Amino acid sequence: MRKFWNGKVSRRGLIGGAAATGAALPVVHELVPHQGLHDQAATAAEHKARARAAHRGSGHLGAVGSVDPRANGFDPHEIVRDFDEGIVRGGVREWELVAEDREIEVAPGVRYAAWTYNGRVPGPTLRAREGERLRIRFVNGSSHPHTIHFHGIHRDVMDGIPGVGPGNIAPGESTVYEFDATPFGLHLYHCHSTPLAEHIAKGLYGGFVIDPRQGRPAADELVMVMNGFDTNFDRSNEVYAVNTVAFAYMDKPIRVKRGELVRIYLVNALEFDLLNSFHVHANFFDYYPTGTRLEPRDFTDTVIQGQGERGILELRFPYTGKYMFHAHVSEFAELGWMGFFEVV
Ligand SMILES: [Cu+2]
């Protein structure tokens, strides 16, 4: 009960502004400690205000500044086209992933103490081909125990969960996960240490693409990991994004070519909210849920994904210009999950 009300007030109440918060507070005074709630609500309000200000500032005013990709050590504009194919040695495709604690800026002035794979959120988008042998060396350079749990078909000891196989990897320790790339499609990997929601929400996740043996038609390929940040630790998000930085693609649209096939690998890594969605303006796309079939299931302009769900979108833009894309959950869009394609 306490958690429920806590979440409702510090988050939903604030969506309606100060009046809505005031109305909601008396109801919960008897259920939760007053001071903690007010502090939490204040932080949430401040972070949301900053996220919204970033939106207003984008494009013309620029008054609230922007997130510096050099300070973060990663750039959403590079991540969106960055696929990590690792190195093939002796017929095995290999990567090394290092968990590290790192403070990142998720909206101008909003800092978040993240846990990262290879210093970035989301972690590298790993890419392999169906049937290959894969080997991932995991080094835990973080101050907390972690794992890497891969989606796919493999033996239990390679599943990256506590208590099975290597289990939790302690700070300073390492392990090796090895399995075959199957089935083809769009998967993800994430930490599976407990408490699970926190370990994922802190930033330990990434996309995992397995190409079909015969490949896919040539396209301009993009990866979009939908995520969010609970900046005041009340188990609800204050900032939403694709590839971590709120409004990154509003400030600087993703440039694509008119008539060219665009393929989007869309992953929902959001915690605390049950659903996320993707909507593109003035266009429609073919949708391949989990990317595990070569025929699209839908021809649509909006798709909903639950936690951990993912899918492949294919579309072409018939006209030049600026076309918006965003979560069709309006609240998420206003708090950072919104961007533009610029078709040239
Ligand atoms: Cu973890």
What does this structure look like?
With 344 residues, the protein is an alpha+beta fold. The chain folds into three domains: 60 residues, no CATH class; 142 residues, Cupredoxins -  blue copper proteins (Immunoglobulin-like); 124 residues, Sandwich (Immunoglobulin-like). Helix content is 22%, strand content 36%. A six-stranded mixed sheet has the order 12-11-14-19-16-17. Strands 1-5-10-9-7 form a five-stranded mixed sheet, with no helix packed on it. The radius of gyration is 20 Å and the shape is globular. The N and C termini lie far apart (52 Å). Copper (II) ion binds next to loops.
CATH architecture of the largest domain: Sandwich
**Rg from alpha-carbon coordinates:** 20 Å
Supply the number of helical segments. Answer: 8
Strand content: 35-45%
Helices and strands, in order, run as HHHHHEEEEEEEEEHEEEHEEEEEEEEHE
The coarse silhouette is: globular
Ions, cofactors, ligands: which are bound? copper (II) ion
User: Superfamily at the CATH H level of the largest domain?
Assistant: Cupredoxins -  blue copper proteins
Q: Uncertain runs with pLDDT below 50, 5 residues or more?
A: 1-37, 58-63
**CATH top level label of the largest domain:** Mainly Beta
Provide the number of structural domains: 3
Largest sheet strand order: 12-11-14-19-16-17
Number of strands: 21
Helix/strand structural class: alpha+beta
